[in-house]
Amino acid sequence: MxxxxxxxxxxxxxxxxxxxxTAAAKPGKVAxxxxxxxxxxxxxxxxxxxxxxxxxxxxxxxxxxINIVGKKTLIEEAVERAKLLTTPDRIYIGxxxxxxxxxxxxxKIDKKQYLLEPTPRNTAPIIAYFTSFLKHNGAEDTxxxxxxxxxxxISPAQNWAETVKLALARAGERIWCLGVKPTRAxxxxxxxxxxxxxxxxxxxxxxxxxKPDFQTANHYLTTERHFWNSGMFIFSIGRMxxxxxxxxxxxxxxxxxxxxxxxxxxxxxxxxxxxxIDYAIxxxxxxxxxxxxxxxxxxxxxxxxxxxxxxxxxxxxxxVHGKVFSRRAKGNIVKTNLTVALLGLENCVLxxxxxxxxxxxxxxxxxxxxxxDKVPPELL
Length: 380
Prior knowledge:
The protein is an alpha/beta fold. The chain has twelve helices and 15 strands.
């Protein structure tokens, strides 16, 4: 009896040692939602103010909270697209405290999935923090990550999702950018020059060009190599963190410290450099790639975007909302709750919202920021 007990104890001890080794090989406490299971993590960046869409976009009601097409706001559309890739528990929104309170009224995801920046620091710090946050909670380096913006108009959504999935399948190899074939000489966008093809619709990147002059942008229309940089990025956690270690090691260390506690986040995040992910990482890394889009895309950066989204009516005007009568009037963009009569007016915008009516020539829209400087604070 004594011998049997001794053998049983020995086996039990060996089993305990084996279990200890197995436990040691595993990461610390891994929450179920962070275990690698093929579903990517998505962060929607929603901290912008949309000043070029004033008076529709205000400080307390920025463009991501605006209905551009249909009844859903731009942030709602972004979340719905993200659900084509993953489950709601893996969708995060990067914003500030004030906007989060407004977004939470229309976007039904858990409050813990809001990453509230203590102060604006552009896109590189929040992306670095997101990877640190995921790692701190037990996510694996192989997990896919998708970075989106809250103010894009994309159609059809299913084509977009299939394009993102092409990148997710190779997320450990490169940081992938979604490139859109340009349809006009746009000086307000960044451009990507495609390099060597690595798969159908996928290539390396030869160069980035931020907001070229009109002559250069017009030249890009004639090539097959240049694409608009949509500002959407796909990568694995390990791939992005490795590039941060190489090119922004101090920022990554701060991001890791931020992820340790909410108090650290509030204290340390404001110390991080104010820089975009494009300048911090994308223009430096060799591990970057382009996926060509097969969907229409617009960043809704100005009122001219409404003319691209809303086709002209039989009179040649783009009526987003409102009742319009016109004679010898064309190329106008109208969004108002009023009944509007247009006579001999061409290429203007008439935008009415919350007690303010903007009337402007479309060619002057780039000056809206200067116009806002003359407006009382309560109307901004």
